[in-house]
């Protein structure tokens, strides 16, 4: 299980437990980060500049000594121009308000599509912009959620759907209690 992030992007609190599962997960995700970074020919300095994360933080992540949050993984994926699912293996990832579980991933000639199950609590989750052209489609399953661009979020009830481009800051928040949803992300090729 991943740990919570402090208010500044990239600062992570120690995991609540350092059991073998948490350690194995950190090592697995860290290895993926290193592989994608080196495959892209990107050094730690360039990835640090592109993601807004410190070189020390990135090194600790790659070496499995730090558990990333959802925001941290999105920052890295965006800086490397890869979809979030390239960094995951189906585990739960936690953000300030959102817990996301990868359900599936499909590659097609013109786009890559990912589907996540989200649990959204009442605290706002501000997500930074993703790569150009990334489209998000969120369908609320239970509860009420406020989602979409930070400057114009939409309130949705169960069975309602909202589609928006994720090229700007965007927000997720449960309204009046937690909400669950399915999020589809489409990355153009």
UniProtKB/TrEMBL annotation:
InterPro entries: Cro/C1-type_HTH, Lambda_DNA-bd_dom_sf, RmlC-like_jellyroll, RmlC_Cupin_sf, TransReg_Diox_bact_type. Residues 33-87 form the HTH cro/C1-type domain. Residues 1-10 have a biased composition (Polar residues). Pfam families: HTH_3. Residues 1-21 are annotated as: Disordered. It comes from the Bacteria. Keywords: DNA-binding. PANTHER family: HTH-TYPE TRANSCRIPTIONAL REGULATOR, METHYLPHOSPHONATE SYNTHASE. This is XRE family transcriptional regulator. It comes from Amycolatopsis ultiminotia.
